[in-house]
Amino acid sequence: ERAELALLRDAPAMTLDGIAIKLEANIELPDEAVAAVEAGADGIGLFRSEFLFMGRPDLPTEEEQYQAYASVVKTMGGRPVTIRTLDLGSDKTLDGDVTVATNPALGLRAIRYCLANPEIFATQLRALLRASQHGHVRILIPMISHMHEVRATRQAIESARRELDERGVPYGRDYSLGAMVEIPAIAIAIEPFVESLDFLSIGTNDLIQYTLAIDRGDTDVADLYDPMHPAVLRLIAHTINAGERAGKPVAVCGEMAGDARMTKMLLGLGLTEFSMHPQQLLDVKKEIRQAHTNALRVKVASALNRAERIDLAALP
Ligand code: PEP
Ligand code: MG
Fold first, then answer.
1. pTM exceeding 0.90
2. Does any ligand 1 atom lie closer than 6 A to the CB of residue 204?
3. Do 33 and 76 form a contact (C-beta atoms < 8 A)?
4. Which residues contact 85 (CB under 8 A, 6 or more apart)?
5. Using a 6 Å cutoff on CB, does residue 50 contact ligand 1?
6. Does 84 carry a binding-site annotation?
7. Are 192 and 149 in contact (CB under 8 A)?
8. How far apart are CA 182 and CA 203, in angstroms?
9. What's the Cα-to-Cα distance from 173 to each of 84, 135, 168, 235, rounded to whole Å?
């Protein structure tokens, strides 16, 4: 069966009715980009940059970050590389960080942390801009809930560019800016985000947690952590549809995207970009190549209209 999957590596990720699907990889450390290329990934859909910051006593310098981001960009050889800005807080903390938030999942995390710590953010943004001279870098902001956070991020990027200009350090002129859709509020009120950003990436791991009020790390309530809850699927569908209308790409980069049992359902929601662990890529591609998107879309839309649970085994 592994040999069959190896043959799949170079086959196009296209449905039976001719819809081309983008399959990208999630990575946590720069070296993993090699596995992404080997699995035939179309790019990096999620580089969780916080892993460069964790498990060490100090912060990585601009140069160190630049080297890490540039190495991924070079490994991917022109394919897009989506680098998420620091997503610290809650389950991901810095060594020696003694702050105890009342509720870390709802606290000063991710983009909130970065905007509150402008030096740390600026250092990362300069490293990202510098890495973008070697290829196509897409900057992805985690945990966005307000439009003013998008505006503040753009301002931070602009001042990072000015500083590099002043220092005479080369950087790429083009970058794209996107946001994670992982807080229900932005999926519900998605229009201004779709309009002002270049792309969106749905983080289902957190979207499920915040929609269902289930701590994603709490084993006592793990049975209630339900990716198939119709409310979760409606938020995903709403986001995909808004992207489709605006002509902006929308990906799913949470665990759902790499679960081959859910591939047809996600195609039925209209998803055309999946990002997952490199090891999951070929199993998902296999599902895609056996799917009829149009039939799936009809079936999934009618279930969602009635907020019915979708029976994965009954999908065409
Ligand atoms: C998510 O929330 O779905 C996601 C992809 O990010 P993380 O798992 O790193 O929070
Ligand atoms: Mg997340």
1. yes
2. yes
3. yes
4. 49, 111, 114, 121, 124, 125, 128, 139, 140, 141, 142, 153
5. no
6. yes
7. no
8. 5
9. 19, 11, 14, 34
Backbone angles phi, psi at 163, to 5 degrees: -65, -40
Q: Whose CA is nearest to atom 4 of ligand 1?
A: 203
- Predicted ipTM of the assembly: 0.99
Which residue's CA lies nearest to atom 1 of ligand 1?
A: 203
Nearest to 205 by CA among 38, 82, 46: 46
* Amino acid type, 61: T
Report whether 206 belongs to an annotated binding site. Answer: yes
Task: Tokens for 260, please give them.
Answer: 């081959």
Radius of gyration of the chain (CA): 19
Q: Are 185 and 193 in contact (CB under 8 A)?
A: no
Tens place of pLDDT per residue across the chain (316 aa): 778 777 899 999 999 999 999 999 999 999 999 999 999 999 999 999 999 999 999 999 999 999 999 999 999 999 999 999 999 976 677 777 766 678 889 999 999 999 999 999 999 999 999 999 999 999 999 999 999 999 999 999 999 999 999 999 999 988 999 999 999 999 999 999 999 999 999 999 999 999 999 999 999 999 999 999 999 999 999 999 999 999 999 999 999 999 999 999 999 999 999 999 999 999 999 999 999 999 999 999 999 999 999 999 999 9
Q: Which of 13, 140, 253, 291 is catalytic?
A: 253
- Residue 253 known to be catalytic: yes
Closest by CA to 207, choosing from 159, 248, 240, is 240
